[in-house]
Amino acid sequence: METEPLPKPSQILPTILDRAAAKVRLSFLKAEIKRNCENLLSDYLRISDADFYKATFVLRNKLKFFDRPDVSRICDGRSDFRLQDFNKPGLRMFALIGQPEAEEETGKQMAQLIAGIFNNLMLRRYAFGLSGEPVAFIADEAHALQQTVDFPRSAAILRAAGVGLCLSTQSISQFNTNEKPNQGSLIAGLCATTICLPGVDVETAEFMSKSFGDRPDPSTSVGRSIGSRSHGISGSDRTPILSVREIRDRPADLERTAIIQVRSGACTRPFLTRY
User: Which InterPro entries does this entry report, sorted A to Z (predicted)?
Assistant: First the structure.
């Protein structure tokens, strides 16, 4: 007996909502199997259309992003993009998660789905000792995805698998919440490398400046006593290695530069790189 192929992801919702087609399919089954299926699906087959609409409201909202052509092409396997390719040795690849409507629920659901698949792939990559080439996992609009994607867990998985995790956002303050007002600084502090582009906001520049530390700046003050003999007092002040203004506003000849801090390895000094 020839069986029907399983529906593709983009066909799941239409298949569930088409109750008339489900009844037709059941009619082709043997009597005993048909009776068992009808008992299992009694509520699905017999409730009113209004109740059925209410019961499937959440499901329709969660699956509606499969209606987008670009999403269905990837999920149905009709494109050259396959997450499984990240496990193949000898490939230099990166994954980018992010969408223009990052605040919308559908975008978050899609990002969570891809991040979950990617983490599972990297778990297998690490467990079986698959080295391969370096892989970068980039989360754009990361602050909008932190409620659905567990970045600390992802970081632990990817670090063990030798994969880089890059969080892209306009300001570290976007990670802050009422419950966790310093969340942005904590997340940024866990990053091995921080990159600041020109015009970065004040809070991010302050974090960057503090992480660089300060240096002693020798100073001497000269005073005059009553007896016309002058005397000097030497000391030193603490000056930031890079001030907030230096991080935010670059000279004209350095406008197209990024300030990068690397916290891992022997290189701890700030340096400039052109892009």
Answer: P-loop_NTPase, T4SS-coupling_protein, TraG-D_C
